[in-house]
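Practice problem: predict the structure.
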Amino acid sequence: MNGIYYLHPPDNSIRQFNEKWGSNRISSNIISQVVQDGEGKIWIGTDHGGIALVDKKIISISAIF
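Answer:
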C-alpha cells in the first residue's frame, strides 16, 4: 500500500494521501495506526513521520507532529 486511501461516502470518491505528491501529503507512507475521534476527525500515526489529522468535512490533511 502506498500511503492511505480515504473513501468519501457522499460522492463515492476515493482520495489517496501519500508522502510523494499533492497538497494533502502525509509525512510517511508507512501507516501504524488510524483512529477516528468523537468529532469525526481521523488521526493517522505514521512510522517515523509523526501524526496527521484528516478533516473529513473539507477533505484536508495536516501534520500535527
